[in-house]
Amino acid sequence: MDWHAAVITIGDDMRLRRWREDDADALLLHANDEAVGRGLSDRFPYPYTRTDAEAFLSGKVVDLDDPVFAIEIDGQACGAIGARRLAGERRVGAELGYWIGQRHWGQGRMSRIVGAYVPWVMGALDLHRLQATVLDFNQASARVLLKNGFAEEGCMRRAVLKHGKVHDLRLFAITRDLPA
Prior knowledge:
The chain is α+β, with helices and mostly antiparallel strands.
């Protein structure tokens, strides 16, 4: 399946689509927020500069050949969701990542977005497993995954150093039930 032209519509006001060069200003508006980056990989810096936005939009931060979409609400890119296929014998799976601008927190939007994206990406990439990791303090992200059928599989204890503090990393996954 060629996903490059895919658009996933979620209600009247939200959709997932490919990132565009003209998303730089919107990306800066939503990404340059310490609270947003707090629960993400260090690939997501704070402060988030125009140089960071340009590097992301040119595919230097994540591979935009993977199904990495802009989350668009009311016509403006305000977050991202994507999956990166695992390699070798783990190629039947992928890792999910997502974020959304703080002004959209607490409204159930990310649960709806993940709920639309997960079945689509599992079909598009013919995945048997989709996994996600969540820092121990990010209860909202854990709830999003649980609401969408992910099971918590375990905890990688003291696995991540973030802002000078060591954190546990919770592992969640959803699988496609097919014969082995």
